[in-house]
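User: tokens in, sequence out, please.
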């Protein structure tokens, strides 16, 4: 799990791996994708803990901003906003169907016959089973949150007073 924090995280994909079960494929910049033998839910919880993020607070803060209460992009920090993109149908009830992709690494989204292709900045492709408009909507929501985050950090920095101890 430590490898998640060493380099630039691009995407997390849930995957059923033969003889291992419900795992997560991790895409990191300038590295080959690798498998973590943990569910996507466990991996995202580890990231939330590392970045000190509460999904409940994220939902409360952004649901009105993007007019949605479900599938809210996860802002790990002002530069790394991860959007949910449906990449598989689940076998079991608690398995994750959504991948999380860092919007700053999304190069283009293509509409193919049976799926959508989210092309990453390094040429890797993530196949989505959602409609093109749904994928584009999730990405747009990610940029709305990113712009809000950016404005928030600028606003806080402008009003911050120097500490005199």
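Assistant: Sequence out:
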């Amino acid at each position: 799990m430590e490898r998640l924090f060493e380099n630039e995280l691009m995407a997390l994909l849930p995957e059923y791996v033969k003889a291992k079960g419900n795992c997560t494929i991790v895409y990191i910049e300038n590295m080959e994708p690798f498998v973590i033998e943990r569910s996507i839910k466990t991996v995202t919880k580890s990231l939330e803990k590392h970045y000190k993020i509460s999904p409940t607070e994220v939902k409360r803060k952004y649901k009105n901003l993007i007019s949605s209460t479900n599938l809210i992009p996860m802002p790990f920090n002002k530069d790394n906003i991860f959007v949910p993109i449906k990449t598989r149908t689940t076998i079991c009830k608690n398995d994750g169907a959504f991948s999380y992709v860092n919007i700053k690494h999304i190069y283009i989204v293509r509409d193919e016959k049976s799926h959508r292709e989210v092309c990453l900045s390094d040429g890797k492709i993530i196949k989505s089973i959602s409609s093109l408009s749904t994928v584009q909507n999730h990405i747009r929501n990610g940029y709305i949150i990113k712009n809000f985050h950016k404005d928030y950090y600028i606003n806080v920095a402008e009003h911050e007073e120097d500490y005199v101890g």
